[in-house]
Design a protein that fits this description.
5 helices, single chain, mainly alpha, about 90 residues
């Protein structure tokens, strides 16, 4: 392999890094622009998949909608969290 091939590969890698950063920024921007009310219209399975795929991109308001819906669907999760907090204190 000659140095020009290596340089070409490095250039392609740099391009991929720029594309990755641009995609990250777009995902973050779109997640921040989500209307929390819209999420309430989704099926729980869709919402759960969405949340777990993008949890670290989502603003707190969107995360709270998911958590609230999850607690409504599975109230026992809320109780176990409360019990574990009490036991840890």
């Amino acid at each position: 392999m000659d140095i020009y091939t290596i340089l070409l590969l490095k250039e392609q890698l740099d391009d991929l890094d720029k594309k990755r950063i641009r995609l990250y920024n777009n995902i973050k921007k779109y997640c921040e622009s989500l209307d929390p009310e819209y999420l309430k219209t989704l099926d729980y399975t869709e919402l759960k998949e969405f949340f777990h795929a993008l949890e670290f991109y989502l603003p707190e308001s969107v995360q709270m909608v998911y958590r609230r819906i999850r607690e409504e669907k599975y109230p026992e999760l809320k109780k176990s969290c409360i019990l574990s907090r009490i036991k840890s204190d």
